[in-house]
Amino acid sequence: MGGHEIEQLIRLLGRLPGFGPRSARRIALFLLRDPQARLVPLARALERAGDAVKTCSTCGNLDTVDPCHICTDPLRDPSVVCVVETVGDLWALERAGVHRGVYQVLGGTLSPLAGIGPEDLNISPLLERLEQGSVREVILALGATVEGATTMHWLMDKLAFYEGVTVSRVAQGMPVGGALDVLDDGTLAAALGARRPA
Amino acid sequence: MGGHEIEQLIRLLGRLPGFGPRSARRIALFLLRDPQARLVPLARALERAGDAVKTCSTCGNLDTVDPCHICTDPLRDPSVVCVVETVGDLWALERAGVHRGVYQVLGGTLSPLAGIGPEDLNISPLLERLEQGSVREVILALGATVEGATTMHWLMDKLAFYEGVTVSRVAQGMPVGGALDVLDDGTLAAALGARRPA
Ligand SMILES: [Zn+2]
Ligand SMILES: [Zn+2]
């Protein structure tokens, strides 16, 4: 519809998560109806964010600096590490403002069906920090899903190796089957506040 | 969250129709997790589409050429003009493949509440075509909304001036209160096929 360049834009928009052909066309039309005010600023923002984005080599967060703002924040407690599945989960906890320590982003969960094994999870920076003796508590904030539970038990086995480290997990307030980053701030605060030893 | 450039991208994504802060963050994270494979091609496609897009000065369609592919297609009948509200409606009719004439895109509907008057609608290219005597039928394919009906009656008054021009309107199959571009192809075909004099 409407020339190769427009079709190609619609095709790429249709690959975004949650998009179908209809929403891709709707967004393309919205942008193309007023390119200077809508499309150009978005293209520029994408380019700039793409140039600037870095994965934090310490925690796995996405930021424009490495290590990320959280890892280098002197007001945060680096001895309390909250383990989350995704950067989206980390951002959800940050928006809620309920965690004053640092993070470890696994980048997923163990999932034999999807072929995701321990070697696919970003866990070694956490193990390094544990070996350096700089961590006193690890909070497991994984989703209340089968994969989240599997991953949590695997992590608990690994973490049991480090003496003097408290391992806790968020529990109360997490709806069963729920993902972390769709919870409201109050639920996140309750789940984190009522954490218990794993 | 995560640096100025990333925040700016999330802000702009959040202004897209149907987007909220949550979906903006989800799409931003999806793109930023793999910039080379996801973000860069989309940024490039936006840029190219933005450079290439033109509004057809004859019908109001968005295309990469002016006049558009439809207006210059020798296999189409330029004497049958289908009037639609938006480019999205035009594209919906094209996907359904039910109209072999040409189009006139109004760019909206009359809406006193929204301050949209006759001077805001793209109607003069159609009037020019009518004055040249090259049009024998005008099909009104406006949405079955209050604004669509208002616009249709205003158009019928204007078109009554041109003798020898049949004015018809799509009718059967349009759900009341429905917009044109969410209809399935079969409904569109039925609505167009069963058009009757306005
Ligand atoms: Zn970090
Ligand atoms: Zn045209």
UniProtKB/TrEMBL annotation, chains A, B:
**Species assigned in the record:** Acetobacter malorum
**What is the stated purpose of this protein?**
May play a role in DNA repair. It seems to be involved in an RecBC-independent recombinational process of DNA repair. It may act with RecF and RecO.
Q: Which GO terms describe its molecular function?
A: DNA binding; zinc ion binding
**Signal peptide (residue range):** none
Q: List residue spans of C4-type Zn fingers.
A: 56-71
Looking up PROSITE patterns in the UniProt record yields: RECR, TOPRIM
Record's SMART domains?
TOPRIM
Tell me the PANTHER family matching this sequence. Answer: RECOMBINATION PROTEIN RECR
Record family assignment: Belongs to the RecR family.
Keywords noted in UniProt: DNA damage, DNA recombination, DNA repair, Metal-binding, Zinc, Zinc-finger
> Known SUPFAM superfamilies for this protein?
Recombination protein RecR (SSF111304)
Q: What is this protein called?
A: Recombination protein RecR
GO term, biological process aspect, one: DNA recombination
Q: Write down the Pfam families for this protein, in alphabetical order.
A: RecR_C, RecR_HhH, RecR_ZnF, Toprim_4
- The keyword Calcium belongs to this UniProt entry's keyword annotation: no
Q: Does the keyword Zinc-finger apply?
A: yes
